[in-house]
Design brief:
3 helices, 46 strands, Immunoglobulin-like, 6-stranded mixed sheet
């Protein structure tokens, strides 16, 4: 008798697998956790999850699926206490997921012999009762936010209420029949008149204080004392209104044009926007549609486009050295211009003197012309001139004494001009295209694909953008410089597949999406695009990529990419 009891203990005590005893219930579209705990440290290679029994048993998830088995892509480990914790989470459950799930430990990695099998847990998935967005809703202060609520069947409007928060912090937001003591937020309305199953709301002029989780709740009767069904809730995040200006300084040569970017986060009247230079008492008005009394527009300045909305960039023609300074794009509360609503971070413009004639003059050798010209005010570096042939270059020193130096001596000489320039095999009209300034990095290491310092940065300030199906969206791309010359191309990436999306002159095997156009009328450093009539299939990663002219087979510089998500209207 005692021996029999010892055998029983040996068999069960040290190999018991814990799973929930009570059935697990979930609503379609939600996430569910199925518990599995081992009594002792166990290798994940020995544990597998299955659904069903006998010939109906199917593999759900494991670290090492057997040949012919596949993991359900919606399933993952919960990640807690690896070794004894082998619980799983199933995301976006379906009604077809209803069934009994078993956590099984095998004797070895082959998975042919079961060491122990859990008692199983029953999962029951029911149809979603109240639908709300799964992904958080993001809005900019002052804009509108739509919060979705759909009932599974026709429901009386008198039974539905919207609340913010949980527990004692829960506050009434909107309903047709507020309870005694509750009030409707005056900024909130239904999105449609004919309800039935649609009880979505729109919040107009959202504030940062509106950030929180919102619940759509159905009550058993009009009194509102007993909850019949509560939605899963949706999180609303409201951020401050922002004005985008270039982060990197703008450099221009005296007499050329300079473009200063300003983009609003919301559609804005041009009567409210003004450009200023400087700060405090030194601040001076540069340009606006409605200058205040005593202010004048600089005659050299104009908008980059006529149709504003969100775009208020300016171009300064024939810049002077005295134009050097910091420029601010400012939005006012009203046309009077007494109260600032929002001020951009400012962008620094640096204007240098005209190209110096010293120390380099044009040199012709075997039909090739090599020219290195540069502004006087640049960062520290070396002058480097390259050609496919050995040539001589005529230079002059600070005292005006002319001399010839060879190409080799030139490339190795650290001149007092303190610049870095690169020229290679150029002819006639190509001169301007190949006069490129490269900034010296602090660690002295080049970062261009050709071993030279990369001079152009591709800025994609948006990390993610959400659009509404059927609407329009702008994806921002700003270059730090117009040089080197060459095309910009937009690519869309889904998974590991990257495809051409838009460019000025697509190659034969590339096609532009007809819904896409440049956002700016005049494209110089702003290569942002606007996509119209957004579709769900547009979701993915979008990259703005710079190429050198004549070297379109390899990217010169690329932006970090922006993620586009699309939600239903």
């Amino acid at each position: 008798m005692d021996g029999w009891m010892l055998c029983c203990c040996f068999k069960y005590k040290w190999s018991y697998i814990f799973q929930q005893r009570t059935p697990v219930e979930a609503v379609e579209g939600s996430n569910v956790v199925l518990i599995c705990r081992m009594p002792s440290i166990t290798s994940p290679d020995l544990v597998r999850w299955y659904k069903g029994e006998g010939s109906q048993r199917t593999h759900i998830f494991s670290h090492l699926p057997k040949a012919g088995d596949r993991n359900d892509a919606r399933v993952s480990w919960t990640g807690k206490n690896p070794g004894i914790e082998f619980s799983i989470v199933i995301e976006d459950v379906k009604i077809s997921d209803t069934g009994k799930y078993y956590c099984i430990k095998y004797a070895d990695e082959k998975g042919d012999t079961i060491s122990d099998e859990g008692p199983g847990v029953t999962l029951t998935v029911t149809g979603s009762a109240i639908f709300q967005q799964k992904s958080p809703v993001e809005a900019v202060q002052g804009s509108k936010a739509i919060l979705i609520c759909r009932m599974p069947s026709i429901t009386s409007l008198d039974l539905v209420r919207w609340y913010k928060g949980e527990g004692s912090q829960r506050t009434h937001i909107f309903s047709r029949l507020p309870k005694a003591g509750d009030r409707n937020d005056a900024r909130v309305t239904w999105t449609r008149k004919n309800h039935g199953i649609e009880f979505s709301i729109v919040i107009d002029g959202v504030k940062i204080s509106d950030t929180g989780k919102y619940y759509c709740i159905k009550y058993a009767d009009e009194k509102g004392d007993t909850i019949s069904e509560e939605g899963p809730g949706v999180t609303l995040t409201v951020t401050g209104s922002t004005i985008f200006q270039q982060k990197t300084p703008v450099e221009a040569v005296q007499g050329s044009k300079a473009i200063l970017i300003c983009r609003m986060s919301l559609v804005t009247s041009p009567d409210l926007v003004r450009w200023y230079k400087g700060e405090g008492r030194q601040r001076t008005h540069i340009f606006s549609r409605l200058p205040k009394a005593g202010d004048r527009n600089d005659a050299r300045v104009s908008w980059t486009r006529k149709n504003h909305g969100i775009e208020f960039s300016i171009v300064i023609d024939g810049v002077k050295i005295s134009d050097t300074g910091k420029y601010y794009c400012i939005k006012y509360a009203d046309e009077k211009g007494d109260t600032i609503s929002e001020e951009g971070p400012g962008v620094t413009l640096t204007v240098t003197g005209e190209h110096s004639q010293s120390p380099v003059e044009a040199v012709e050798a075997s039909g090739q012309i090599l020219v290195c010209v540069h502004p006087k005010e640049t960062s520290e570096g070396h002058v480097k001139c390259y050609s496919s042939q050995q040539i001589h270059i005529r230079t002059s020193d600070d005292q005006g004494n002319e001399k010839d130096i060879s190409q080799i001596a030139w490339t190795e000489k650290n001149l007092s001009s303190n610049i870095t320039l690169t020229m290679r095999d150029v002819r006639g009209s190509d001169l301007d295209e190949y006069c490129e300034k490269y900034k010296k990095m602090s660690n002295g290491k080049p970062r261009g694909s050709d071993g030279l310092l990369q001079m152009t940065d591709v800025n994609q300030p948006q990390s993610s953008v959400e659009a509404v199906e059927g609407g329009d969206v702008t994806l921002t791309c700003i270059l730090s410089s117009e040089l080197p010359l060459g095309p910009i191309k937009w690519y869309k990436e889904v998974g590991s597949e990257r495809t051409h999306f838009y460019s000025a002159v697509p190659h034969r095997d590339e096609k532009n999406d007809p819904r896409v156009a440049w956002t700016m009328d005049k494209v110089t450093v702003d290569y942002s695009i606007t996509i119209r009539n957004i579709r769900f299939s547009d979701m993915g990663e979008y990259y703005c990529v710079k190429y050198r002219k004549g070297e379109e087979d390899k990217p010169y510089a690329s932006g970090p990419g922006v993620t586009l998500t699309v939600r239903g209207a």
